[in-house]
Description:
Largest sheet of chain A: 5 strands, mixed
Structural class of chain A: mainly beta
CATH architecture of chain B: Orthogonal Bundle
Number of strands of chain B: 4
Largest interface: A-B, 69 and 58 residues
Number of helices of chain A: 5
Helix content of chain B: 40-55%
CATH class of the domain at 120-175 and 188-299 in chain A: Alpha Beta
Radius of gyration of chain B: 23 Å
Oligomer: heterodimer
Number of domains of chain B: 1
Largest sheet of chain B: 2 strands, antiparallel
CATH superfamily of chain B: Cytochrome c-like domain
Distance between the termini of chain B: 48 Å
Order of helices and strands of chain B: HEHEHHHHHEHE
Number of helices of chain B: 8
CATH topology of chain B: Cytochrome Bc1 Complex, Chain D, domain 2
CATH architecture of the domain at 120-175 and 188-299 in chain A: Alpha-Beta Complex
CATH superfamily of the domain at 120-175 and 188-299 in chain A: Oxidoreductase, molybdopterin-binding domain
Number of strands of chain A: 26
Radius of gyration of chain A: 24 Å
Shape of chain B: globular
CATH topology of the domain at 120-175 and 188-299 in chain A: Sulfite Oxidase, Chain A, domain 2
Helix content of chain A: under 10%
Structural class of chain B: mainly alpha
Strand content of chain B: 5-15%
Distance between the termini of chain A: 22 Å
Amino acid sequence: MAVPPDSNDELEYAAGGGLLHRRALLRQGLVLATAAAAIPAARAQSPPPAALPAPLDPNPPTLTTPGAPFSAYGSPSSFERRVLRAVGANADVPGNGVSWTPLESLEGIITPSGLHFERHHNGVPTIDPKQHRLMIHGFVKQPLTFSLESLLRYPMRSHLIFLECGGNSNAGWHSEPIQRPVGSFHGMVSCSEWTGVPVSVLLDEAGVDAAAAWAVLEGADAGALNVSLPLAKLRDDCIVALYQNGERIRPEQGYPLRLIVPGWEGIVNIKWLRRLQLTSEPAMTRDETAKYTELQPGGKARQFTYVMEAKSVITTPSAMQRLKDPGIYEIRGLAWSGRGRVARVDISADGGKTWAEAALQDPVLPRCLTRFRAAWNWSGKPAVLKSRATDETGYVQPERNVLVAERGRRGYFHYNAIVSWGVAEDGEVSHVYA
Amino acid sequence: MRNARRHLSVFLPLAFLGAAVVSADTPKLGEPAAPEVVAKWNSTIFPDGRGLPEGKGTVTEGRAIYDKKCSNCHGPEGRGETAEELAGNDVPLSDPDTSQTIGSYWPYATTLFDYTRRAMPMDAPGSLAPDEVYAVTAYLLQINGVITEADEMNAATLAKVRMPNRDGFTRIDAK
């Protein structure tokens, strides 16, 4: 079915536009790009470069110079200092805005804690853990407060999961495709191991009244951000997280403790959590009515759209990158679903005409970022790359025109359409609607 | 030794089902909170007005507060500046050119009181006294055409305000 770009080569094609069979990833001899983004590693057809660069010093000074001493807390190489979160904040209120994870610069599935995306409404509070309490009250037999010292003694569990802002990728609703690095477009998703105390344990200790059906949760930031959540979800798998990626949660992620609500939109994962009030109904706070609701074409709005539906994006190659020359590339990306595991990811290199299944890299965990890979032989002709995730419930990530036809363009939140990257003849990659 | 074995037999099947913790085995270190302490912490306001504090405010008082403490970010008459617009949309929500203002979009007036009290003004959140919050709430409702110039806002009157888009929401992932 697939037409190879050059019938003289011996590569095994899986779909149009030069997509190679998944087996190519395992085959010896086909070396795929593993270092710098979008640099071809195997140059099947290209001639050797005309001028060779100056030869490397076979005895670099690092072999003969004692290295730097120990550091009590490590940081990235100085050569990587440009790998940073992109920040977009309000001119009048510097603590109001977002920062995006630079997805284009990262590999694997774990987001370094210092590069986890942020959405703050009024800055990052500095909280002394000794002065902080979590209060549980409302429809309970006994209202309780918990100190950090006591929470640290409780049995814990971990969730290795993605966290995604409900507003992630919202530039996708724009009428023209936005041109930005993939992280500054889709990087309000990150992935960490969160460890802490199951909420159900604390609720049981307080004793839940039969009339309780919802909870109101509140942070200790400026403005005491508040949201409501159904009690069933809190009981099911939510934790009061104290650790992120093995260390205590960082200030901008909610130090000393935050709520973790696996698979649900970021806003309900309340940072700096200080109050959990059981109720019979939601409080209808600003961030579950005026915001984090989605206005639909008929004039009605979707509310309590908590679950982050299946989504995927190719991170390499991606917008603002450039392919140096034709040849074999590894297409790399991330897929995730708030409903469970990613079941498969399909890749197209011809704008969606034909598709080939990508390889999913272990581990493939529920509600976790999943890394996918596919081998691609770029002929040097214009191409359109797409990825399409399917989760274990059978839900398939929609094409953009399908999502827009259903939801209109005013919903702002929960944009999860297929992303298209156009590759021009000169190798320039841009965001396209295709 | 015997204890440890009992532990294991309790934990293994449960862990397998995903419920990793048995409440009986937790340390129970929560400290009882007295009702008056809870009352001081509790700031939740419900759509039916439960939780609203005592106090009152008028549109005129609210306009003065707004011009002094809010308009620098939200613009005069709530028309938007560096912070979003708060009033001034006459276009129906079904029209693609609409905008989501308090008057056109917000389902409950109590939300406006709650949010203003806790989060605004953004450079001094929590600084407004209840009377000031009632007043600025009255003003914002009035410029949105929801109440009249003469209406005073207090716990009773605010809870009775019916927002135009009250029934404009459909619950998706929770009922």
